[in-house]
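ARCHIVE RECORD
Type: protein–small molecule complex
Small molecule: protoporphyrin IX containing FE
Source of inputs: curated submission
Record status: active
Notes field left blank by submitter.
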Amino acid sequence: MIAGTETTATELSGMTYHLLKNPARMARLTKEIRTAFSSLEDINLVNIAQLEYLNAVIEEGLRIYPPVSVGLPRSVPEGGAKVGGMWLPGGTVVSLAQYAAYHSERNFKDPDSFVPERWMPEGQKEYGSDDARAFVPFLHGPRNCLGRNLAYHEMRLVLTSVLLNFDLELADDTVWTDQNVYLLWDKKPLMIKLTAVGK
Ligand code: HEM
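STRUCTURE (tokenized, with ligand):
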């Protein structure tokens, strides 16, 4: 239950906050959604997956605010192994700290900026040097996230449904991302004013 709900909800909150702090990008996403669909009945899991900007926003949301931001421990198998170019003895505990990797200039240009375009062909001139190999929000290997595909469907569906029907506005100027993390983020309330479209 925790794996499937807290992570997806966290990411949806984070993406919404970053979109609200970047009004031009919120406007672009809203336009993409409202051009593609005129009512909830038009939406299905296949056609929302075609929305290019929505997909880029989700990737960028997972990069700038990864739900599992700490490093989950893995132990080096018996006999040792080479990890990141270094030989480590069996039993050594290793991990990848996701937040640190995604906010390092060694992997991503302008790491603290919310730039969905970096995941699109149009952004490659400026962000082509980003090292997407460092980006594994669902981790890697046979025990990585079981719900990855469902999570993408859920995030697309929820964000599309909300932005199709409501205009969003931050209700206060709290720096929402100023949070502690204990495996998952200790989220504060994200206060948003919603206005029904056309009202
Ligand atoms: C944005 C949403 C999500 C993110 C970022 C995420 C991320 C992760 C991460 C990092 C792991 C640990 C993988 C590892 O140790 O290698 C994990 C495991 C897992 N996740 Fe997710 N997750 C998300 C959504 C979901 C959803 C929607 C479900 C199910 C409905 C789910 C079910 C699971 C399960 C069952 C595991 C344990 C897998 C195993 O140990 O074999 N997750 N997830």
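CURATOR ANNOTATION: The longest helix spans residues 2-21.
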